[in-house]
Structure formats: structure tokens, C-alpha cells
Batch of 2 targets.
Target 1
Amino acid sequence: MQLARVRGTVVCTQKLPSLRGSKLLVLEMLDETGQPLPQYEVAADLVGAGRDEWVLVSRGSAARVEPGQENNPIDAMVIGIIDTVTIGNQQIYNP
Amino acid sequence: MQLARVRGTVVCTQKLPSLRGSKLLVLEMLDETGQPLPQYEVAADLVGAGRDEWVLVSRGSAARVEPGQENNPIDAMVIGIIDTVTIGNQQIYNP
Amino acid sequence: MQLARVRGTVVCTQKLPSLRGSKLLVLEMLDETGQPLPQYEVAADLVGAGRDEWVLVSRGSAARVEPGQENNPIDAMVIGIIDTVTIGNQQIYNP
Amino acid sequence: MQLARVRGTVVCTQKLPSLRGSKLLVLEMLDETGQPLPQYEVAADLVGAGRDEWVLVSRGSAARVEPGQENNPIDAMVIGIIDTVTIGNQQIYNP
Amino acid sequence: MQLARVRGTVVCTQKLPSLRGSKLLVLEMLDETGQPLPQYEVAADLVGAGRDEWVLVSRGSAARVEPGQENNPIDAMVIGIIDTVTIGNQQIYNP
């Protein structure tokens, strides 16, 4: 999984019938010290992450493991809102 | 998922029996501000995306989740035509 | 999927029992304008692509979707020989 | 699989119901000589790896193969704690 | 698939119960002309590849297709020992 920060949203009305109405977030990928990387991901969110929160994103078939998502054609999912990241003895994130 | 813009089409007549007759689009990948990236993807399209439209593309086994696509040997699918992308307070795309 | 050009072949005699006797091609990956990229893929070919032909290659579990390939331990498959690639109004490939 | 060193932990309390309570480690990826790479992975750990230990990490659907993990929405798993890495005649790691 | 050369081995004694006792090789990835790339992969080997031999490596769920490997949490497998690689009219490898 990767660390990411919520930056925005994407809306599609014309879409595959299988694409569920879940919220689609634009995530800025972060390195392990919390610095932004030149990468992003659009991921489904069922956890209710808010703007600028740090989240954990899982990619590939892992995005469809949650019950009810098996037939959602997504390849990235927010699996949790991050409380703390600790590297060595140091908390690098604790909002 | 990633943001992309429709640039063109690919046609194959000699192909695997399992490859369905779905339209194959050449997509230019975009960053989260809408700038083109030096990457592309050829993706199947069932949504009817037109030239220069922004779409959301899903990759990997997600491309075969839509009913009827389970046996289509594709690894990328257009899952929606984008209406709006909002980053922070700003709509960066609203055609 | 990605565009690629057939450059050569790979032969293995000592191999996993599950690896089928399908032809294994060395593919040079191409960008969307047909320029070679510094990447290659070894892919199975059931379509009969010849040297220097442009093909469409699908990667990941998509390589094992074609009936008879479910138990072939491959991660890349030629899914079609390309007839034309059109970008905007221009045919960039039409052999 | 890739070699990695345990650097820290991530804690999420608000999360997908399917995300199990397994420990989530921040791993620094290593090259094959043990030098750190500018990449990291957050992976689930059931083996009990400690700080600074070298581990083997498996990514993608392999993360959900262990019995009890089939419905855990993770895309990376520590599959072993490394005892030795030997390159040619030389042991490059033997803690 | 990618071409690779066998460079060494990895040993783990503390590991997931599902990780089989198969040999784990450190592979140096090669480009299509046989030059080493700055990438490596740790892959399971059931074929018996020896040091410095060239092998074909398959990644992702393809690593678990071989009967008996379905529940092995690996993401890379040696699927064959390479006899010859031919690019155009030239054999670039024929040990």
C-alpha cells in the first residue's frame, strides 16, 4: 500500500453500468516521510476521507475485496484514514 | 484509476478469438492538473467516449469486471467519461 | 494494452510443465507515435505475428483469458496484429 | 519479490470493515546489494518482523494467498524474515 | 515476461506457513540484448536454474499457475531456462 493525501474529486455521469456510485477521490501520492511525489491516483472511497487527510491506498484486485465491490471495475481503493505514521522512534504524522 | 484524453483508435482484424469487437482507443495519460504525461494506454471503450474527451481508465483485472467482458483478454478499460475534476476549491476540468 | 513491434524469439526447452509450447516473441515496445521505447516484453503468440509487424500486447492475468491458456504461467500475450493506428485525423500506421 | 528493511508502522482506526487488524509496516525497499532504494511499501505483517530486519515482500494478489487473508484488501505482504542473501560466492546479508 | 540472469539465493526460515520450501533466486534483470538492467527480482525456481544461467521470469498471479503453487504467496516465478534468444537474424544468446 502507499500513503496519499486527499486532494479532490472526480465526477462521471456517463459510465459503465458496473461502476458503482462510490465517491472517487483524487489522491496525491506521498513518500514515507510525507513529501508529495509526482504521482496521483483516482481511488474509490467508502471510508469518508476528507480533504487533506492522509489515507492508505491499495491497488489492483485488492480494490474489489470489500463485500459489495466485487463487480465494481476499479483498480484503487482507500482502505483506511491514517492516524499515525511512525518511522524509527519518530511520529512523522499525527494530525 | 488515471485521467486520460482520447487521442485515437487502433484496429486489429487478425486477433485472438477471445478479443471482442469492442472499440479500442488510444489514450494520452494526464496528470492530476490535466497536463499530458509521456505515457499512453490502449483501452477498450464501451461508454462511447469521443475524441479529446477526458475519461477515467482502470487497469489490470478491473478491465474485465463489466458483465460480458470476463473473457475479453484486455488489461485496460474506459470506465467513465469525466464531467468534472475538482482539486481543492478549483474545478480544473468542466467541459 | 501497449503497441509493440516483433523483434525476435525466445526458446526454452527446460521449463515448467505448465508452460505450453506456444511461440514466445521478443517485442520492442512502441510509443503512441510508433517510436521505439527502451522497454521490451517477452509475450506468447497464438495469432501468428511475423517479424517487424506491429502487435497489441496485453499484460497481467489478461494473458491467460483465451480458452486453453488458463494454466499457462505467462504474464503477456499478443492479442492482435495491428492494421491501423489513427491519432486525430492521421493514420500513423497502415502497413 | 523484493528485499526490504522494516522502518516503521502505520495505524488506521477508521477503515474498511474488511481490513483486518494485522500490523502494517513501513518498508524501505532495498536493491540486491542491500542499498536503500527511493521506494517504500506499506505491507501487512503476520511473521513478526522487527525494526531494521530485512524481509521479503510480495505484492499484488499474492498478499491475500495466506489462509485467513483472502478478504483482506491489501496489496503487499511480508512473506518471510531474511536469514541470508548470497550473491555469487558472497553473503551480502547474514545478521 | 522478462529475461534475467541467476545471481544468487535468498533464505528465510521464519516465514508465512503458506510459503513453500521452493528455492528463492535473486535474478538480475536483462534488457533484450542481454545487458544488465538496474533491476532485480527474487523469484521462486522449480526448474533448477544454475548460477549465471539466463531464465525467463513471469510476474504477478502467473507465478501461482503451476499445479501445487496455487497457495504459495509468491509474485515471481522462473518459468524456463533460456536456450536461445534471437533478435532479427542474430542469436544474441546461445550458451
Target 2
Amino acid sequence: MRIVFPLFDGFTALDLVGPYEILRMLPGAEIVLAGEGAGDAVRDGAGGLSLLATHARADVREADVLLVPGGPGARRDVDDPALLEWITAVHSTTRWTASVCTGALLLGAAGLLAGKTATTHWNAVRELESHGATYTPERVVAHPGDRLITGAGVSAGIDLAITLAARLASPAHAQAYQLALEYDPRPPYGAGSLATAPAEAKALLGVAEGSEA
Amino acid sequence: MRIVFPLFDGFTALDLVGPYEILRMLPGAEIVLAGEGAGDAVRDGAGGLSLLATHARADVREADVLLVPGGPGARRDVDDPALLEWITAVHSTTRWTASVCTGALLLGAAGLLAGKTATTHWNAVRELESHGATYTPERVVAHPGDRLITGAGVSAGIDLAITLAARLASPAHAQAYQLALEYDPRPPYGAGSLATAPAEAKALLGVAEGSEA
């Protein structure tokens, strides 16, 4: 089972590492981090860490699962035709093509989400809909017939990957992986969505009260 | 605000990257990934990815926050006196010293948890208690007077980091970071703890039904 993550400058690390920690446990999982060049150090959007690419994108033409992370680089790369063509080509070979956070903008820019419901980070709704998708404020949106699954912002990749593991292996496998990561979340606050975050927290992010996105 | 993560071969990536994505947003945050050598590529426990060390451990003597991840390498390195001495020395300078998952075993082996309550991954309870700590099945266990905070397995690092952000900045900052990561978890199953995971899932991990750890 070949799990491919594109690595681009400015990705959000948790968008990738959350799902990685679940999907790596799938039977026969092979992990591919596809950068411009094999061995490239690819810096995340916050600039605090770098992951090494295991493969060059040009050498990666097939995947069982293609998972596209978001980040500032995803917003930039909607204008990178080579990356979009690569996503489209690999998507044609997958069992599932997934995005986390603003990775959905890359699927959208590649034309894969036109006319479909999808989710993304709450601050990227208009950009997502500019690609012809309809934003749905759910944690995970799956279209099995189209082999497409999108997740909400950053931390939603863990929920998305458990959902995928249930479909690719079995619900018992997905539950085992959840237990292995002790994923029994206890957020200290109920501030994880625009609907629940207090005004003071939104103000710190520059979000006006009453804003939907 | 200097946030230091030791990087050792066989760390669990999500133990580090979950807290990283919260703590990097703290005002004035400087991120340090301290490996054997600066620029070293350090492979995770699953073997699927490598992070680059930003600094050599020998050059890192102070931290505002020291966060020790777990992983197979943490279990091995309880026998590495140089790493334990480094942890003890840096701990003497911190505002908070934290562990995620089996990172607690390194704090324990360094003698920091003797006589204290602490948490760790559910499969490391006996090892934790061998260092004189008392396992507490909570998501996060904080001892402000001792500047020590431990988190449960892997994914608990996100909850721990939000807890720390509230103490280091403010509850509003912590809530803003939670919103920025859209941390509004919706686990597809209630399988994230030994108490709630079904027998079939436990069996896949080799855990006998009725086992406490």
C-alpha cells in the first residue's frame, strides 16, 4: 500500500504528520514523501522545521493513497501547473486522493473538486469555492465514487486518516490505530471552530466577530 | 521564548509536531530541534520520515520550554547517560519541562519524576513507575511548582501544548491557537483509550482484553 505525500516549501507539518502516524500502520504501508528532488530538505510554512523528501516527484507516478497537505505553500502553489498536473496524474491511479486543510485548494486548482462538496480550513472557504466546490463545514467530507476525501483545518487530518484506515483495512484496524496513538482528545477549551471560539481568541487571529470565514 | 525539542533516532513524529504547531505561535517563539549534530537528518521510530536538527545538543544549554517526545528511541535512550545529563541540565533553566508519550520515560530516567504523579502512553505504565513515578491515567498531568508537565500517548501532545500556551501566554492565546489549528476533534470511533477500545482492536495491537496496560 503506497501512501504518497507531496512535500512543497511552506507545507503545514501537522497536516502531513497527523495522517502519517495513522496511515503508516496500514498493512504493507510504504511511505513516500515526494519533493522536487529526492533528499531535499523541505521547510514548513512556519519555518521552524524541515522534512526530508524520500523521492523526487518526477519519479512518483502512482499511489494507493495520495494525501495533499495544506499550508502557505499550498495557497501559493495553486499557480504551479507542474504540481497540479502531477496531482492530476497521480490521482488517476489512486484508491483515495485526500487533502487536509488548504491542501483542498490544490485539489480544487487541479479541477478535482468542481461541482462537489468539500471541506478545508475555515479561513479558506472563499478560495475553495473559487474552484467550483461547495464548502461544507464538516470535519471530513468523502466522495467514495470519486475516490476523493477532504479534511478541515490542520488537526482534522487525524480524523480523516482514521476514516480512510477503516475503508482501506477495516474498522477494527482503524480503532487499533486510534488506540495506538491514544487518540482520546481532551481539548482544554471548546475553541476549535469559528462557532465556538470566544471573540477574544478570534480577535488575536484577526477574525471579526460574526465572521463565517 | 525558546522552545527546545531533543531529536533522537526513533522519536515519534507526532509527539513533536503536534506540540510544535501550537508552541510555535507563542509570542517571540524560537524553535530549536536539538540533535547530535546541527543539520543531522534524524529518522523517526516508524522509519518513514526524517526531520533535520537545527542545533547540536552540545550547543543548547538553556530553554524556556523543553519538550521531550517519545518513541522507540526514548525507550532505548533511558540508558544514554549523556542525553539524560543534558535533559537534567537544560531542565534546570526552563520555565516548563514537558514530555509527550514515552518521553516521560526519559524524564523519569533523569530522576525528574521520582515521587510524582505523571502520565505516559498506556503501554509504558510499568516502565514509568520503575522510575519512582505514579502513573495517572489523565491526558495531561502538571506540577507547576516543579515546572513539570507530562502528556499521555502521542496525540496528547496537542492537548498538553494548549495547556502550556495558556500558562505561558494567556487562555485567549491558547484558544486562538486551538482555532488556528481547527482543533475541534471528531474521532470517528471512541477507541482512543484502553477503557473504550473494543477487544478486536486491542487484539490487533497484541493487548489482552482486561489488560490495564
